Amino acid sequence: MAGTIRAQYPTSLRTVLVPCTGRVGADLIMRAFGRGADGVLVVG
Amino acid sequence: MLEADRHENIEIMSYSEVVKVDGYIGNFRVQVKRKARFVNEGLCTGCGSCTEACPIYVPNYFDENLSARKCIDIAFAQAVPAISNIERNSCVECFACVDVCDTDAIDFSQQDEIVELEVGTIIVATGWDLYQGKDYGYGTYDNVITQIQLERILAPNGPTFGHLKRPSDRARPKRVLFINCVGSRDLKTNEHCSVVCCNLSVKNSKLIMSEYPDSEIVVSYIDMRCGGKMYEEYYRRARNAGIIFIKGLIGKIEEDSKTKNLKVQLEPVGTDSVVEMEFDMVVLSSASLPSQGTNQIASVMNIEKTSDGFLKEVHARLDPINTKVPGVYLAGSCQGQKSIDLAVSQAKGAASTAGIPMKHEEYTMELIRAKPIDERCAKCYKCIEACPYSAISVNEEGLIVVDLISCRGCGICAATCPSKAIELAHYKDIQYMAYIDELLPLEE
């Protein structure tokens, strides 16, 4: 959706494809924080 | 309906409800409760002699309770199958019907019966019900009726044989007010638009006007939504016929206790004034709601609902027929209120869609499926609770088993499991961890 509306987002953003937002558990989010991410956006 | 009933491949089970659905596309096992009608369907010929003999009158639900019917009766004149039904709550068990029935079809010992069916695909077409709120004196004032009650009054086989008569004194109402959006488009009741009522007001006001050109008809509305093929032209013809359409809300309705006429305060938009008018009858365009059994059918079939309570499709615009359950399709108002032409289109679409896997005898699915890792499983069964598709069960050894056809590969189980004992093929934790690590390299 962000792509089709040509939305701009910062180059520091990294995307991870999931089959469903339900697949995103706390462990994945914590891993991202552990690796230094400032925030995690779960978008469905 | 009659043609469907006579078709050799179609079996109609009226007065029944679906109580359980197991299995998956191609192999659904459905339990249908056939409610006791106390009349043997194989023997009843629909002759109606039982109805004549019955001494008990009950409100006629088909006429929206505007007339009476017998306690044993055929649902309505064109009902298919034309078989009598006993309303046991009102029956006094005089057995007059039993005495008079030539084919001995009446059986007071009949019990509810569960029938098991094996089917490949399912189309849900459970329709809608009318909002019955007490707005504008409905249920209190005799001459405040709903559009559906007016439909019955205007029907040739209705309670007044098609003659326009108001309920209180059976006189012809000369001044009629239609109020649109009752219980609809209102955050206090239902947010959704009921879609069909604008055209229903146009149609019924035009019908009254053509029968009685001296009528004084006012339609009060929020917005007239007459979209669709030829509907705008239809609306214009109604305005040209002398029906007055006023944009504005109704403030208050009071009944004159003697004449039973209705005194109405109307606030037309943009005039800054309140108009008081008197009408002989008020017709409410009440909201369309999901039919009463919608919650039950949604839970037994595992179909989701949208916020308005209607059954949810895969995608409101791009896939309005499929549900998230493969092999289960939607047709008509159960998915959201719609006009007859759209209901017909959707029904034909659903029939064709269901026909594809039935004809091919084949169903293609993705291989993204959950997979249990038995040696890690602590048997907490949190995954079973978490699965929205009831795809996970327990075997004799207490280990979890994933039904690969019911599983839709969402991965909620994998995210829920505290022991990492269930993983999603191609979307495993180890893959995600590597992915995240690569995206976010640690600074040296």
Molecular structure report:
The complex is a heterodimer of chains A (44) and B (444). Chain A has one helix at residues 26-34. Chain A has one domain. The longest helix of chain A is centred in the C-terminal third of the chain and has 9 residues, at 26-34. Chain A is flat, with a radius of gyration of 12 Å. By secondary structure, chain A is mainly α. The mean pLDDT of chain A is 87. Chain B is α/β, with parallel strands linked by helices. Among the domains of chain B are: 129-289, FAD/NAD(P)-binding domain, CATH 3.50.50.60; 370-439, Alpha-Beta Plaits (2-Layer Sandwich), CATH 3.30.70. Chain B is built from eleven helices and 22 strands. The longest helix of chain B has 21 residues, at 340-360. The chains are: A mainly alpha (44), B alpha/beta (444). The A-B interface holds A 14, 16, 18-20, 22-25, 27-28, 31-32, 35-37 and B 368, 388, 409-412, 414-416, 424, 427, 429, 432-433, 435-437, 439-443.
Can you summarize this structure?
Chain A is mainly alpha-helical and about 45 residues long.
Task: Describe the secondary structure blueprint for this structure.
The complex is a heterodimer of chains A (44) and B (444).
Chain A lengths: L25 H9 L10
Chain B lengths: L1 H5 L9 E9 L2 E8 L14 H5 L3 E3 L8 E3 L1 E3 L9 E3 L9 H5 L12 E7 L2 E3 L3 E3 L13 E3 H8 L20 E8 L14 H15 L4 E6 L9 H10 L3 E12 L6 E7 L6 E5 L1 E6 L1 E3 L3 H8 L26 E3 L9 H21 L9 E3 L9 H5 L5 E3 L5 E3 L9 H5 L5 E3 L4 H11 L5
Helix pairs in contact in B: 4-5, 5-6
